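Lab manual, section 2.4: Encoding a predicted structure.

Procedure: take the sequence of the chain (133 residues), apply the prediction step described in section 2.3, and record the output as structure tokens. A sample record is shown.
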Amino acid sequence: MAFLGHIVSKNGVAVDPCKIEVVVKLERPMNVSKVRSFLGLAGYYRRFVEGFSKIALPLTRQIKKEVKFECFDNCERSFQELKKRLTTAPILTLPKGNEDFIVYTDASHKGLGRVLMQRGKVIAYAFRQLKPY
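Recorded output:
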């Protein structure tokens, strides 16, 4: 069943193939507006991408008001990696009952990462960047 850009089945939740087709056709964003648009689409599916915020960091830096837009190689790598991860996103398991949940966490001076799993299958990824002091 298609629901809000996702395909929900007995196997779990997947990215809608129509959205994957849109991502495949996207060209490198060449201005702030296009970067924001891409990050908006990609951000909607962030729970499917392990380390989303870390991968998207070069692009998110480009949309800050005090930064002059200059798309360097690291922006291109970030864009291509996000496209790759979105087009090959895993099927996330739907939680069953309220037992056997495991949360893996990872923290550093740059961010906090989490993976929610049940019975060895991923339910969702989450990552948050920390702001520097």
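Check your result against the sample. The chain has four helices and six strands.
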